[in-house]
Design brief:
heterodimer, A: about 300 residues, mainly alpha, B: about 300 residues
Chain lengths: ~300, ~300
């Protein structure tokens, strides 16, 4: 991104291009990265669904940050004389069983739900990507041991793994982030490893090694930039999935606890009033649904933009 | 073939051992003192120590694990703290409910998902494809428990067509099945669509058309047959996930399955039951994945199990 766009195939600026090997995907050569990147951005922006997803997510982020400006109600202040009100001008989405404004709780809840999604995926990435790269690049007994451990964790269905972890760690927002994040580590290790393996045997990696580059340099400069595309796509799609898992824990009462207005926990509370006041469960569910939908739209768009070989 | 199955079963043993270590450690890391829990809150310190000794909890961890493993081989998962029943008894009482619900759901999901994905692929970039693709995206974005609650609101409360909970009469199966299947339908349809689109561009499909094969035979005989492998992988993986993922659906509908048992046990800190349920779930998951691998050979004659 430092250099201006250069022609893709005509500029043998470095070893990889000069050797005239089949161009790795996505192109690694320093000279053609800007145009590759720019084409990716263009492809992403042409995807109306993806663009809409990102815009709605930005809107949600603004609402989350500016929640005190958007509503004058305190999301945790109970007012029993105002309980279970239908939607009205004063309470646009009505009030819950403790008289709290549902809209205010949703707006403040966006903070927790978005934070949990991003933080959990970050936990997964920070642990999973280095492990996966090392396994893929160095192989050997380290790879063997880590892969067997991953096998064990992958033999528990995803939600169950998060549920078990939160049982050990305890409830509360930090533990939910940790449990959900650790729950996605195995998938990230597997994906990064596979991606590293496919890049490791490329001619430009051999060239770098022949030129005397050491392992860490090869990994950082040559492998990771080329191996990360599928991981980035998976991370974006993972944002929606982790949000669903965290909300599911909240729904069961094993996630973020009362009176914090996390969407999943709100849905769980609303469940008791499903017969009399379905609003309590409906609105938090819609909030989760729309957010996850937007993450998935953005993830699909990113996949199509970064990986032209996939048409689905 | 039998050789292959036997070898895979043997290969699953280390994974299961790994799971047992994880579960064993997990239960020991859980908050609370199991000896105190068995003894009760009012028991004296001496009684608690006594029970600790009886349960072998004063032994070093490796010794405890070895004993745990020996008991496990005798299908002894301990006794439930809550009910005093053997954990196996509790698990076996709930297991059929979970397996039946997951099996019905995966059958529905496979049928609807493959059909939907197939139609979307055949009508690629036409209106029908757009509609199905949008529905699939909704399906994978929806919190299942919310979908379940909304189904209850519409079909049990507003229309009063179906019961909101329970598991006795056949009508009570419809909403939980739909809820549990929703996500899998979308995932299977997405996979079917993308695989079919890929396969329909393959050379052998063009050859089949070129030799004048009727479209019906091209789609089902040549394309779908070759697209089946990744589809079956997703279906198998989803079946395994549904077995464990039924926790939320079972909670919504009060379904008397393993998921419900697990949640109740977690809240009651009934750790022997938690341990037993998690072990059973992962054993099932490993078995289902093994079954999928065996299916490969039947679907794709190119795969040889030497």
């Amino acid at each position: 991104m430092r250099e201006p766009a250069a022609s893709v195939s005509l500029a043998p600026a470095n070893g990889a291009a000069a050797l005239n090997v089949p161009r790795p995907y996505p192109a690694r050569a320093e000279s053609d990265r800007p145009s590759q990147f720019r084409r990716g951005v263009q492809r992403f922006c042409r995807n109306r669904g993806a663009l809409a997803g990102v815009m709605v997510l930005c809107l949600f982020a603004v609402v989350a940050l500016a929640a005190p400006l958007a509503t004058t109600y305190d999301p945790e202040q109970t007012q029993l004389d105002q309980k279970l009100l239908e939607p009205s001008a004063a309470h646009l989405l009505g009030t819950d069983h403790l008289g709290r404004d549902i809209l205010a709780r949703l707006a403040y809840g966006a903070r927790y739900s978005l934070l949990i999604g991003f933080a959990a995926v970050s936990v997964g990435l920070v642990i999973g990507v280095p492990l996966g790269t090392m396994c893929g690049y160095y192989g050997g007994w380290l790879d063997l041991v880590i892969q067997r451990v991953i096998d064990v964790f992958l033999s528990l269905p995803g939600f169950l793994l998060a549920l078990s972890l939160v049982a050990v760690l305890g409830v509360g927002i930090n533990n939910v982030i940790l449990a959900v994040g650790l729950g996605v580590v195995p998938a990230f290790v597997r994906l990064t490893r596979a991606s590293t393996l496919s890049v490791r045997s490329r001619a430009y990696v051999d060239a770098a090694r022949t030129a005397g580059a050491r392992g860490p340099i090869i990994i950082l400069r040559h492998i990771l930039p080329n191996a990360l595309a599928p991981v980035v796509i998976q991370a974006t799609l993972g944002l929606g999935a982790t949000l669903l898992t965290a909300a599911g824990l909240g729904f069961l009462g094993l996630g973020v606890q009362q009176p914090t207005p996390e969407w999943g926990a709100m849905l769980g509370e609303g469940r008791s009033y499903i017969f009399s006041n379905p609003n309590l469960a409906t609105f938090p569910g819609i909030a989760i649904f729309v957010t996850v939908l937007c993450f998935n739209l953005a993830g699909d768009g990113l996949r199509d933009a970064l990986d032209p070989t996939l048409t689905a | 073939m039998l050789h292959y199955v036997a070898r895979r079963l043997v290969a699953a043993v280390p994974t299961l051992l790994g799971v047992s270590i994880v579960v064993f450690m997990m239960v020991r890391l859980l908050p609370g003192d199991p000896a105190r829990m068995v003894a009760g809150l009012l028991a004296s310190e001496a009684d608690v120590e006594n029970i600790r000794h009886q349960l072998g909890l004063d032994q070093p961890a490796p010794v405890q694990y070895a004993e745990f493993l020996v008991r496990l081989m005798h299908f002894d998962l301990g006794t439930s703290v809550r009910t005093g029943q053997p954990v196996w008894y509790e698990v076996l009482a709930r297991l059929p409910w979970t397996i039946e619900l997951a099996a019905t759901s995966i059958a529905v999901a496979a049928a609807v998902g493959v059909a939907g994905g197939l139609v979307a692929a055949l009508y690629h970039n036409q209106r029908l494809d757009t509609i199905i693709s949008a529905l699939m995206l909704f399906g994978i974005s929806m919190p299942v428990y919310w979908f379940g609650l909304m189904l209850i609101v519409v079909f049990a409360i507003k229309l009063q067509w179906l019961p909101a909970a329970g598991s006795q009469d056949p009508g009570a199966w419809i909403l939980p099945t739909l809820t549990l299947a929703a996500f899998s339908v979308a995932l299977i349809a997405r996979m079917t669509r993308s695989t079919m689109l890929e396969v329909l561009r393959a050379d052998y499909v063009r050859t089949a058309r070129a030799k004048g094969q009727i479209e019906h035979a091209v789609v089902y005989g040549h394309a779908l047959r070759n697209a089946m492998l990744p589809i079956v992988t997703v279906i198998g993986h989803q079946f395994g996930t549904l077995l464990g993922g039924a926790v939320l659906t079972e909670t919504v509908f009060g379904w008397p399955g393993m998921g419900q048992l697990l949640v109740d046990a977690l809240f009651a800190r009934d750790y022997p039951v938690v341990q037993g349920v998690v072990l059973t779930f992962s054993a099932l998951f490993i078995l289902v994945n093994l079954g999928v691998d065996v299916l490969y050979g039947m679907i794709d004659p190119r795969i040889q199990y030497a």
